[in-house]
Fold Myo-inosose-2 dehydratase.
Amino acid sequence: MNFENIKLGIAPINWTNDDMPELGGENTFEQCISEMALAGFTGCEVGNKFPRDTDVLKKALGLRRLQICNQWNSYELTTKSLEENIQNFTRLLDFLEIMGAKVIGGGETGNSCQGLNVPVFEGKGMLNTDAEWKTFTTGLDTLGKIAKDRGMKLAFHHHMGTCIQTIEETDRLLNETNPDYVYLNYDCGHFHFAGENPVTALEKYISRTAHIHLKDVRPNVLERVHQEKLSFLTAVKQGVFTVPGDKEGCIDFPSLFEVIKASDYQGWIVLEAEQDPAKANPLEYAIIARKFFNGLTGI
């Protein structure tokens, strides 16, 4: 196949950071979506400054020919009841369904250290027993079936600081959940950060992937994360992530796109490279990534 069934989106976290609202706090919702469109993207995910009134949001996006393609959901299956998770999940499904999205993303935050001031490699969330894994995967299956029954896909995001961070953990997640209910939100930046080969991971998981995030990693900053035992959020503020096409990055994107091209993947590829907007102008970096994507895919 070629890339005619692929759409390119972008995440608002490049403008305003959900985990650290002080990063990009000066950037407005209107600036964010206007610059997304100006850079040449056709879709976006949902950020903390996006209005929740669907009529207002649809009008603002429609003026810029943008559409919502996904939103992060914080699963808390390790710390809250399944009933609470179903309530939160269903509310977000209601919103995304109205906005025309077909994917609901997110990762397990219940036992995560991603938002804590602890070393990301030492304080990560864990599932320690078979019983904990069973509760977790059964819960995901339940939520995934709810999504499927409404014509949507649950795309689970492996993420630094969480119980699903490595290829080994991702393997177990996918092996112990129903492939009709639970898919992967693949992220090359998080796999590289975790010490995995992003190309190998994509080759392994592309047939189970419902959503793709692409970001790059600055290896010099990642080395400091290890040496100085930095937290995840400190690593982000220090610039561990950058956009595809930035010469400071190190991920093999041509090989990633070859894997996608050879697959049956249909859906969104989303640029998601959280940086400090005061250090990395969001529009400038979005244009860098958009030109880079076009050079590799023709779209």
Notes: Residues 155 and 210 are 6 Å apart (CA to CA). The beta strands are 6-10, 43-45, 67-70, 103-104, 153-157, 182-187, 209-214, 216-217, 241-242, 267-271. The chain has a mean pLDDT of 95.
